[in-house]
Amino acid sequence: MTSVEDIEPEALRQRLAASDVLLVDVREADEFAREHIAGAVSMPLSTFDPARLPRDRRIIVSCASGRRSQQAAEQLGTAGFSNIANLRGGLAAWKLAGLPTSVDLGQPISLMRQVQITAGTLIVLGTVLGAFVSTWFLLIPGFVGGGLLIAGITDSCLMARMLSKLPYNHSRAADAHIGPDERGSLV
Asked: Residue 3, class by beta-carbon neighbours within 10 Å (0-12 exposed, 13-18 middle, 19+ buried)?
């Protein structure tokens, strides 16, 4: 396996300006649609396939914080890619360095943030109602906590599936995923 080099945000900005790298964002399509580094292509880690990437270009992978992109970089190394790097700190580090992103506020916030907001709201509401109205309302935070426990164990979140059905989550996020060309490779 090839060792994975980390690249700093400013060095990546220079490489993107020189157009000599392919930046692959491995966050989910909804995250990418909301905000990404200009010039990046979307290939979510959940469907990541190194065979779709060109071998004749330097591949740099990025995500929100650098963890998912590290996994993608390791998959690339296992698949025999040698010219790969991981954006150290991900999109968070890129933004912390004051570098620009492409933002589409018309896109919904990520599904994970929606789950966190919904779960947090239900827990606070159930606790307050349980303290001041009826102890029966304490079943709400217990139910939500149990659901989060099951989601963590099974890696399947019922709340996320339900939220994904809402109309505002059926936007252009699916279009943000850059598909393969006729050879099956990303260009």
From this structure: exposed
* Exposure on the CB side of residue 163, measured as CA atoms within 13 A: 17
Identify the pLDDT of residue 150.
94
Helix (H) or strand (E) holding 158: helix 158-164
Examine the residue annotation and report whether 157 is marked as an active-site residue of this protein: no
Largest Cα–Cα separation, the chain:
65
CA distance 180 to 17: 23
Catalytic residue among 7, 63, 111, 157: 63
Q: How far is CA 135 from CA 126, 130, 138, 175, in A?
A: 9, 4, 5, 46
- Residues 69-109 pLDDT 10s: 999 999 999 999 989 999 999 999 999 999 999 999 888 88
pLDDT for residue 111: 83
Q: Give the dihedral of Cα atoms 157, 30, 86, 61; nearest 10 deg.
A: 120
* Stretch among 25-29, 71-75, 161-165 having the lowest mean pLDDT: 161-165
